[in-house]
């Protein structure tokens, strides 16, 4: 899971410039829409492999591996400048990192209790809420209604459902953190140069998660195969998608990028079926489609509003 929503709630932001340069030659020959889709599936593959680690490690330990790997990889290319930071900058960076930590912890707890498609769909209510809150159009009430219908369909009313109330609650908490993350990432982009704010936040996040992750993971965290998978999750969830999206954003409008990003819950459900054999009921697919439609609608309307305002 990753998101760097700045101007657009579904815009993952500047990405990693140096890893992106490695892929630039190959990426230039691929249509930008395909790069976005590859990035989406990379993120969901990372989540799928992380979920498979739950058989050996608790979710909090997997979160620690994922964030620590991301912080090390990002820190190798972007070293945050801490010297000369004002008190507000420190507060923003620490808050940014703490929000990132809680977002990942709650999402992985949701992932341990829900099929991937459902967890991502419910979490997506966070950026959807930011998109709707930024607009004053009455039509946005339609998207709110669609998203609400999706949540109602996903709620575990029956005993045969694969969802759980605790999983839904964790996913909603992750979505709320995602909404906060969107706002904090925009503020960090104004106070920190380039991606140094993100690098600072990743380090803070790793420090915040380390006590619970190390305590729950214990000696299992030292197993080479688990460390290798954790590194792979960090690459799939961070470096690869950010690099691909950076190249795509250079060649396509942000509105189109946001529309494509609305496909992420459906991609998560598909990866869940193919990688984890998480077969969903018709009602659950309908719920996911409701949330995807709400995301598409709010993003398209936001784009039209932006064009009219120019």
Reported for the largest beta sheet, the result is: none
Termini separation (Å)? 33 Å
Structural class: mainly alpha
Over all CA atoms, what is the radius of gyration? 18 Å
Tally of strands: 0
Q: Unreliable stretches, pLDDT < 50, 5 or more residues? A: 3-20, 305-310
Q: What is the percentage of strand-forming residues? A: under 5%
Shape: globular
Overall tally of domains: 1
Q: Can you give the mean pLDDT?
A: 82
- What level of helicity do the residues show? over 70%
Discrete helix count: 13
Secondary-structure element order, N to C: HHHHHHHHHHHHH
Domain EamA: 166-297
Membrane topology: Multi-pass membrane protein
Protein name: EamA family transporter
Family: Belongs to the EamA transporter family.
How would you describe this structure to a colleague?
By secondary structure, the chain is mainly alpha-helical. It has one domain. Helix content is 75%, strand content 0%. It is built from 13 helices and no strands. Helix 1 crosses helix 10 (224-249), helix 2 (32-52) runs antiparallel to helix 10 (224-249) and helix 4 (87-111) runs antiparallel to helix 8. It is globular. This is EamA family transporter. It is found in: Cell membrane. It is a multi-pass membrane protein. InterPro entries: Diverse_Substrate_Transporter (IPR051258), EamA_dom (IPR000620), EmrE-like (IPR037185).
């Amino acid at each position: 899971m990753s998101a760097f929503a700045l101007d657009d709630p579904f815009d993952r932001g500047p990405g990693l410039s140096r890893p992106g340069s490695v892929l630039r030659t190959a990426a230039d020959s691929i249509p930008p829409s395909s790069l976005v889709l590859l990035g989406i599936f990379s993120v969901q593959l990372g989540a799928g492999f992380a979920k498979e680690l739950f058989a050996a490690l608790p979710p909090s330990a997997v979160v620690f591996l994922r964030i620590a790997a991301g912080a090390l990889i990002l820190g190798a290319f972007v070293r945050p400048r801490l010297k000369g930071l004002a008190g507000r900058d420190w507060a923003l960076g620490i808050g940014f990192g703490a929000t990132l930590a809680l977002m990942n912890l709650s999402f992985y707890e949701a992932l341990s209790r829900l099929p991937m498609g459902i967890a991502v769909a419910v979490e997506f209510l966070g950026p959807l809420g930011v998109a709707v809150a930024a607009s004053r159009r009455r039509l946005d009430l339609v998207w709110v209604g669609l998203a609400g219908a999706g949540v109602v369909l996903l709620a575990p009313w029956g005993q045969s459902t694969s969802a759980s109330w605790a999983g839904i609650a964790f996913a909603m908490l992750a979505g709320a953190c995602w909404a906060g993350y969107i706002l904090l990432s925009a503020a960090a982009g104004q106070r920190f140069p380039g991606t140094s704010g993100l690098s600072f936040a990743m380090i803070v996040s790793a420090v915040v998660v380390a006590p619970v992750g190390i305590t729950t993971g214990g000696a299992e965290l030292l197993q080479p195969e688990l460390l290798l998978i954790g590194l792979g999750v960090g690459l799939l969830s961070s470096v690869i998608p950010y690099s691909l999206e950076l190249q795509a954003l250079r060649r396509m409008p942000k509105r189109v990028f946001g529309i494509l990003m609305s496909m992420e819950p459906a991609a998560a459900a598909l990866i869940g079926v193919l990688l984890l054999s998480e077969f969903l009921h018709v009602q659950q697919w309908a719920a996911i489609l409701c949330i995807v439609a709400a995301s598409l609608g709010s993003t398209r309307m936001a784009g039209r509003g932006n064009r009219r305002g120019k």
